[in-house]
Write a structure and sequence with these properties.
globular; Nucleotidyltransferase, domain 5; alpha/beta; 2 domains; 10 strands
């Protein structure tokens, strides 16, 4: 592998990044970690919509079909060639093992053929790093709430690549709860954007769903009880022959989720004396979550930052940013790097 000079010597570095952890095939090219030269995303939402969720085997097959096309599109859009790439970043977990292996195999083959460093990236770390792209002035330390389809974490970012885990979900992730409730309401897939949209037309106080805080000294989350409460409410209304206003149920459910997320995040920020809170993950696109966290943070003098919508969902640009900082710290992977579907952050 060739050795690169650190960027402080005036050298611009170009990172090719690949993301295939779930149902988006994405490749991106970044300059010096924070400047996007290209970010190509091929979504499979329409493919999986008819199944009501992601089918792992179908996702893997679509990644195989799309991976080379997406990589070439990213290089073309960035107006560079393969031999101008300095290193390759790739998601190796967490995610669907078959999907991860497609991107990982492509990245390893290219790193070997081009004789350039390979950097394995934790998908959750990528979500956090999306904020470095969106906010050029952002630097650690800060508190981060990561909310996505498969993960819910509260982490204090001590430095680039250094995370102190403060809380996590004990059962359903927030995005998973949104998908299941949306399915029960007959809204379709993916549930998060659909509930966010329809909740704007509903009354968030119409149904008194529980707010689950667990023990007083924990920053962990639990969404399974709330999800069950929504399902029980829908079943009881149907058994009684009572009407169900979907907009009100969606708004009430969403409000119950957001209140817990916001209150626990602010409590953690007070404990760490954090001046900045960062949102990350697919659910960070939720408009009500953004608005309420900003409003409550402002009351306490805490800045709240989040990425644009395109960087909230799975994309390779965030992986490229994380790979750049890992490389600067000498965290280079070997070609034996394997997929770890349950990879933990930190």
């Amino acid at each position: 592998m060739k050795t690169l000079l650190p960027p402080k010597n005036g050298r611009d570095y170009r990172t090719l990044a690949i993301e295939t952890s779930c149902d988006e095939t994405s490749a991106a090219v970044l300059k010096n970690g924070r400047e996007i030269l290209s970010n190509v995303i091929s979504s499979q939402i329409d493919v999986h919509k008819k199944f009501g969720g992601v089918v792992p085997e179908v996702a893997s097959r679509k990644h195989i079909e799309n991976i080379n096309i997406v990589i070439q599109e990213a290089l073309d859009e960035a107006e560079i060639t393969m031999d101008q790439i300095d290193h390759i970043g790739v998601t190796y977990g967490p995610g669907l093992v078959g999907a991860l292996l497609v991107g990982l195999s492509a990245a390893k083959a290219m790193a070997y053929a081009l004789d350039i460093p390979l950097i394995g990236v934790n998908h959750i770390e990528g979500h956090i790093c999306a904020n470095y792209i969106a906010h050029p002035d952002l630097k650690p330390p800060f508190l981060c709430l990561i909310v996505s389809g498969g993960h819910t974490y509260l982490a204090h970012v001590n430095d680039y690549g250094e995370y102190e885990m403060m809380g996590k979900t004990r059962d359903d992730a927030v995005g998973e709860a949104f998908d299941k409730v949306a399915r029960a309401l007959g809204l379709g897939y993916p549930g998060g954007p659909l509930i966010d949209k329809i909740a704007k037309e509903g009354n968030p106080e119409a149904v008194d769903f529980p707010r689950v805080y667990l023990e007083p000294d924990t920053f962990d989350f639990s969404m399974s009880g709330l999800k069950s409460a929504v399902l029980n409410y829908l079943n009881s209304q149907k058994q009684r022959g009572a009407s169900i206003r979907v907009e009100d149920v969606a708004a009430s459910f969403q409000q119950a989720v957001i209140e817990v997320l916001v209150n626990k995040t602010l409590h953690a920020a007070r404990k760490k004396e954090a001046h900045t809170i960062v949102l990350a993950g697919g659910v960070a696109a939720n408009s009500a979550l953004r608005m309420q966290l900003e409003r409550e943070g402002k009351k306490e003098g805490i800045a709240v930052k989040y990425p644009p919508l395109i960087l909230c969902t799975d994309n390779a640009a965030m992986i490229g940013c994380a790979a750049y900082y890992r490389y600067q710290q000498g965290k280079v992977s070997d070609l034996y790097l394997n997929a770890i579907p349950d990879l933990k952050l930190g």
